[in-house]
Amino acid sequence: MNFSKNNHDFKQKTKAMSKTILLTITLALTSLFLTAQTSTTEVTTEGTTITVTVSLRGTGGNVLYSLHNESTFMKVPLEGASSEIIDGKSTFTFNNVAPGTYGIMIVHDKNDNKRMDFETSGRPLEAYGMSNNPMSYGPPQFSDAKFEVSDTPVDIEIRL
Questions:
Q1: Is 105 exposed, middle or buried (0-12, 13-18, 19+ CB in 10 A)?
Q2: What domains can be seen in the chain, in order of their start residue?
Q3: What is the CA angle 99-91-61, rounded to 5?
Q4: What is the Cα–Cα distance from 155 to 36, expressed in whole angstroms?
Q5: Would you say 134 and 142 are in contact if contact means Cβ atoms under 8 Å apart?
Q6: Considering the entire predicted model, what is its pTM?
Q7: pLDDT tens-digit profile of 59-103?
Q8: CA separation for the pair 153, 158 (Å, rounded)
Q9: Three-state secondary-structure class, residue 64
């Protein structure tokens, strides 16, 4: 058996898969946060609230928040926003959220450029997280981040 060739093939496949995963995350998070600054002027009073709190080690920049359902996850969010960091915490409340199944993604945008930054190797330079705080080694999955919203307010803490 040629273990050297098998090891080389394994490394090549792992490298290609890592690049694919990082490209997927990059594209999704970039499109997600490009729309984070959009806002609507329409005000409704239907639905409930989802309040998200994030504890951070650093105080620079802002936290970018995005609310998704299954069809918008890792794409354009239902709602996106940015919130400042005060005393190592950031909190944002999504208002008028209809009952349903949702997922939330966040990024600590340290340099406040409204996007996630990456090393040349493709690894994220800025911390990110999602609802339910799953530990995953691949692209984020809606099934890991989803939670149910009824007519009562929801409080979520996301760890980075």
A1: buried
A2: 3-158 (2.60.40.10)
A3: 130
A4: 21
A5: no
A6: 0.72
A7: 789 999 999 999 999 899 999 999 999 999 999 999 999 999 999
A8: 16
A9: strand
